[in-house]
Amino acid sequence: MKVQLTEAVRHAVTRGAPVVALESTIIAHGMPYPQNLEMAREVEEVVRGGGAVPATIAIVDGVLRAGLSDAELAHFAETGPSIMKVSTRDIPYVVARRQTGATTVASTMRIAALAGIRVFATGGIGGAHREAGESFDISNDLNEFAVSDVAVVTAGAKAILDLPLTLEILETNGVPVVGFGTGEFPAFYSRQSGLAAPMRLDTADEVAAMMKAKWSLGLKGGVVVANPISPADEIPASEITPHINRALAEAKEQGVAGKQVTPFLLKRITEITEGRSLKANIALVMNNARVAAAIAVAYARR
Length: 302
Ligand code: PSU
Ligand code: MN
Known about the structure:
Blueprint: E1 4-5, H1 7-15, E2 19-22, H2 25-28, H3 35-49, E3 53-60, E4 63-66, H4 70-79, E5 84-86, H5 91-96, E6 101-103, H6 105-115, E7 119-121, H7 132-135, H8 141-144, E8 151-154, H9 163-172, E9 177-180, E10 199-201, H10 204-216, E11 223-226, H11 237-253, H12 261-272, H13 276-301
Parallel strand pairs: 1-4, 2-3, 2-7, 5-6, 7-8, 8-11, 9-10, 9-11
Antiparallel strand pairs: 3-4, 3-6
Helix pairs in contact: 3-4, 3-13, 10-13, 11-12
């Protein structure tokens, strides 16, 4: 087996019971300690509450893992950004050197697919950064959706990105992007982006039916399930936009580049909003985990 599963995850995967993958970059790089540890524990509870087995994915001492112990979750949360952020390109490097790494959406999708897990809950997927036409900074997440057969529940994509370009690239890659209960593509902290979602489905069972249809036809790759943050938790676009723009300007000024960009922006927006964006981020992760568990349950039934 290429991926080491915990007993609970192995048992569920072998029986075709519902499993939901979770990523570890969001723990080590996406949120500060101790909120990251609380989030990591709570999201697993939400998945269990929805009737699925949680499988937090990471690389530990060179081993691809699906399912972490509580001590391991705490290790990723406490160590934070000094743990390597591992995207798909980094997997062989970290494995060969027997290192430990936190997996992004892209590498989590790849490892989930290798482990036979078809549903994954995250906060927000990566995308094309603004000015990507010049910088070519387009998240590997968008390529991975063309390759790995996993449905990813995400609160759309962050407004730190170029959302129209992100949707164009997903289209080019042949990736279905579904608004879950909405005709609009959500913008992470905000429910609205002003952009239409290319497709709309209203129930977990409809999403499961589409996953079955896609993969049984041999249509490779993932599905973006864009699930808007709840109205009670959202930060309206008019309010968050100036903060996002300030963080983007600072990143440019300081010459932040490559894989540092996304963690830098998340951290600065949390500081600028005095924790409000972090609260919204945690709330939308839980909201995504609930939907992902429902999709995993519906998929397992089919
Ligand atoms: N969105 C979040 N929190 C995160 C990330 C995205 O709300 O921590 C992480 C995910 O792991 C995603 C990665 O895959 O950022 C994208 O990084 P990049 O833009 O460098 O590809
Ligand atoms: Mn990038």
